[in-house]
Amino acid sequence: MRNPPFEDAGLTEQLALFPQATAVPDGLQYVPEFISPALEHELIGHVSALPLQPFQFGAFEGKRRVASFGFRYDYTLQRLQPAEPIPLWLGPLIEKVEAHGGPSTRIAQVLCTEYDAGVGIGWHRDKPHFDRIFGLSLGSPCKFRFRRAVGEKWQRYTLEAAPRSLYMISGESRRVWEHSIPAVEAPRHSITFRTMADRKT
């Protein structure tokens, strides 16, 4: 079954912003100016005020600082763990994201991240406990890179994620392609919204 429509009639126009649109990974969608500059400023303030901690990857510590809500993945235990409840200030934004995602969209996990200049994130796929991923960029642009193995070579795609924009990854872009963010040139914040995968067997 296809995912519910993420965007309205403006989808074609918005996808036209992708360079080489035929190379866009299946399931990747993008909305520029998803929020206003005033709301962006407010959200950066909220994220900056959180008790952010360095990202923990087992015994390793990442340079970006994060706070998880709803659920968090424990790399030492290799399982999902309960996290702090989603803050009330995120409620209206979650409603807006869910409205764009369609009637079946229910955000259950949120990750707030702070990147200092020179910090990025390596190649990865989000954990299979999650389904669709929505990312809101705040503060500065970034290159949101994708790659997948095709034979002995890598097929690659880069999305220029502007401040205040929202991307969604689902389908092949979520499960087949890896993604990463190279070191950002200026401080950046992001808020990632995740739905849960259907774990029924």
UniProtKB/TrEMBL annotation:
Organism: Bradyrhizobium valentinum
Gene Ontology biological-process annotations: demethylation
Domain Fe2OG dioxygenase: 106-197
A single GO molecular function term of this UniProt record: demethylase activity
Pfam families the UniProt entry points to: 2OG-FeII_Oxy_2
PROSITE patterns: FE2OG_OXY
Protein name: 2OG-Fe(II) oxygenase
Domain of life: Bacteria
